[in-house]
């Protein structure tokens, strides 16, 4: 989805503030939120990691931007536990003693019609273009590289294709590629000609470019 | 109708915890285990990998060829470490890691990511204006050095092998590892100069 | 700028809630904020409307999304009054008795290098493409139509070119055009073939398309 | 260091007002005038324009040719009304207005925009999925009718001339105007059927 989570290249953000000696968790609830996220996936087996990532993407955009990272973790996890029927939204709200905002529902037609690419189609050095798909559901090709042409640096192993897994389809695995894009191809007229961005992209997000 | 006020995040977290426990879907001991699990994932692990790579050329070759296996040699493996790739800085090429769409990192060698890495500011900006971001964070790169930004958009988890600082000849692995911060493993800082 | 204000086509937003018999202002401070916005432009002559629009775009994105419309009006106006030297941020914060968040500074290189188009280049029926510029400053070609091809429906009069006016450059005027884009050209695979979006675009945002 | 808590929006508004007044940059009377100015801008003005167009074919022609001048004939002009264009609905073509990047409207004939028009929800969605948005808002359009979404990205300010409802033959201009809401002038509703 063209959602608030797809932040790469968005402008208007300020300085990055760093904290020295930052602890793993600042507050006890953050450790609990992490444990709940983990347990929901590996003990309850309520949902997979792709569904989980997409549940966070479906948060109200204003809530997403102002929330702490672990608040997003908790909101996505709770939303899926409710959607899968393990918990009820009313019960959570009653227990919490106030409104408990959950993520918005999955879009009606979440997936682009991509052919499974079970065999690798590309090799190191190949020029490839990222498809200009904009499905309403989960997709891991960031918007900033869609339509752009890059070069394959490396072929990684096969991993579950996230668009399908996030929406309960048949699990399939495909190779991903580390594809290098010149920064000036992504954002013409900006930056240095020496710079590049390498994006890890599933085979079916790509098409061959004839030289 | 006035909207109900939002419960605090502490209350909301507690609500999910209590509901799962009461339904018997998880146990308190499960949650305790998972809450403490991140204690084993820490940047000191990645620093040890880098120090070994600086001192053992064979290990360095193995690390560059298959970082997952090389990290596992030192005992570092687990969730979000299923496919690790090590990125070697050179005098001409600097590497920096981001996850623009969520906040993925190689937990076993970098630890859970710090707040700045998870911030919208870092995620939005470092792909588009890496030099400006790095400079703000204290790393002023020469225009002669190329910057490669690695976007963690799929299942590969990256770690940077920073340049070994000058003046560290003969240092022990332990002394070398102490020069490698989490920020250096992500690529927003260099390894520290020896004191 | 590729900022949070450029919302057209962004996904993840929920239902639109309407209020019957909505008053012009819900709270007295909103009328004051409106008056301050208006007075700053026509009485104080602190800034022009393009600078004003851009000042709102420069708000922290999380603040922008959670703020009421008139809170955005006030924040943009106050930011320019401070930037132009009429008011001081410290004084505003002291008077308000708390933090007074202002917009972020103007980007270092805010404008794309567009040639002034003082004479109209296009006529009704012409096919035109929107340039794929992404300047860091003010620009009024929405991102959703950049790179897309549409048809000129109407040539409007000349109006001040906003990119230049928002950044204090020499004022110039150019015709704008009502350019119609098929919805399915903007978002392939979605919507109805009967639908379109008409965008009002300055001449220099456009280039001719040879049929 | 803990961040200072944000002052309320009432306090912040008062702070700007007081600072400008104390410096003599504006007067209380200026602000009073501007705060009340929007009272003259209201959708009843646009409704009167539509009713005239429904009943006076010559006026309708003038409105479609030059809405700025035609609205001024009825006394409606002023800020954000410098170049008005009227969009005539037909049985085959529905028009709807948005301003995705801020919230521009033709103040003299529509009034200041309502909250829903200024919401991120409306601005983001209506350009991409107009039929779904209109349906949620109560306007279910047949698939045979084309939808044109007008994005107020420059200085043109639009108003919609909705279809005249059936059963209104012989109605006075006043009675017709009462059927035209602000929502109909923006295009998210039809003119009301007579009661």
The chain-level structural class of chain B is alpha/beta
Number of domains as seen in the coordinates of chain A: 2
CATH topology of the largest domain in chain A: Cyclin A, domain 1
Overall average residue pLDDT of chain A: 96
Computed structural class of chain A? alpha+beta
Q: Any key phrases for this structure?
A:
heterotetramer, A: 211 residues, alpha+beta, Cyclin A, domain 1, SH3 type barrels, 7 helices, B: 195 residues, alpha/beta, Nitrile Hydratase, Chain A, 11 helices, globular
What's the short version?
The complex is a heterotetramer, with 2 copies of chain A (211 residues) and 2 copies of chain B (195 residues). With 211 residues, chain A is α+β, with helices and mostly antiparallel strands.
Explain what you see.
By secondary structure, chain A is of the alpha+beta class. Chain A folds into 2 domains: 1-106, Orthogonal Bundle (Cyclin A, domain 1); 110-208, Roll (SH3 type barrels). Chain A is built from 7 helices and 5 strands. In chain A, strands 4-3-2-1-5 form a 5-stranded antiparallel β-sheet. In chain A, helix 1 packs parallel to helix 4 (69-83) and helix 2 (49-57) crosses helix 4. Chain A is globular and about 60 Å long. The mean pLDDT of chain A is 96. Chain B folds into 2 domains: 7-37; 41-186, Alpha-Beta Complex (Nitrile Hydratase, Chain A). Helices cover 43% and strands 11% of the residues of chain B. Chain B has helices spanning 9-22, 28-36, 43-55, 57-65, 67-73, 107-110, 115-118, 120-125, 130-136, 173-177, 182-186; strands at residues 84-88, 93-98, 146-151, 157-161. In chain B, the strands form 2 sheets. A two-stranded parallel ribbon of chain B has the order 1-4. In chain B, strands 2-3 form a two-stranded parallel sheet. In chain B, helix 3 (43-55) packs across helix 4 and helix 4 crosses helix 5 (67-73). The interface between A and B is large, with 82 and 75 residues. Strand 4 of chain C pairs parallel with strand 3 of chain D.
């Amino acid at each position: 989805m063209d959602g608030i989570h797809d932040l790469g290249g968005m402008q208007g953000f300020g300085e990055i503030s760093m904290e020295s000696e930052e602890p793993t968790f600042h507050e006890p609830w953050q450790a609990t939120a992490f444990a709940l996220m983990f347990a929901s996936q590996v003990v309850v087996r309520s949902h997979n990691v792709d569904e989980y990532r997409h549940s966070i993407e479906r948060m109200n955009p204003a809530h997403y931007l102002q929330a702490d990272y672990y608040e997003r973790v908790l909101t996505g996890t709770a939303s899926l536990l409710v959607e899968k029927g393990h918990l009820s939204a009313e019960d959570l709200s009653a227990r919490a003693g106030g409104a408990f905002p959950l993520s918005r529902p999955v879009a009606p037609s979440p997936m682009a019609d991509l052919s499974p690419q079970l065999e690798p189609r590309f090799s190191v050095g190949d020029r490839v273009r990222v498809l200009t798909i904009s499905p309403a559901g989960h997709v891991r090709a960031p918007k900033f590289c869609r339509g752009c042409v890059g070069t394959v640096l490396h072929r990684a192993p096969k991993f579950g294709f996230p668009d399908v897994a996030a929406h309960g389809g048949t699990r399939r695995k495909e190779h991903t590629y580390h594809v290098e894009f010149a920064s000036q191809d992504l954002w013409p007229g900006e930056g240095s000609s020496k710079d590049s961005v390498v994006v890890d992209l599933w085979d079916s997000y790509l098409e061959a470019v004839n030289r | 109708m006035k909207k109900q006020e939002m419960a605090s995040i502490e209350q909301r977290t507690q609500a999910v915890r209590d509901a799962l426990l009461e339904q018997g879907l998880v146990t308190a001991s499960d949650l305790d285990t998972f809450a403490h699990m991140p204690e084993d994932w820490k940047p000191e692990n990645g620093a040890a990998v880098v120090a070994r790579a600086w001192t053992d050329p064979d290990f360095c070759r193995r690390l560059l060829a298959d970082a997952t296996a090389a990290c596992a040699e030192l005992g570092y493996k687990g969730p979000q470490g299923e496919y690790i790739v090590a990125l070697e800085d050179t005098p001409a090429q600097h590497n920096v890691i981001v996850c623009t769409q969520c906040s993925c990192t190689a937990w076993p060698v970098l630890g859970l990511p710090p707040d700045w890495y998870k911030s919208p500011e870092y995620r939005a900006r470092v792909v588009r204006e890496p030099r400006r971001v790095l400079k703000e964070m204290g790393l002023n790169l020469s225009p002669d050095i190329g910057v490669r930004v690695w976007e963690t958009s799929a299942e590969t988890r990256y770690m940077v092998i920073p340049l070994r600082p000058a003046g560290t000849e003969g240092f022990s692995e332990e002394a070398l590892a102490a020069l490698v911060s989490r920020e250096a493993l992500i690529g927003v800082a260099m390894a520290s100069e020896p004191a």
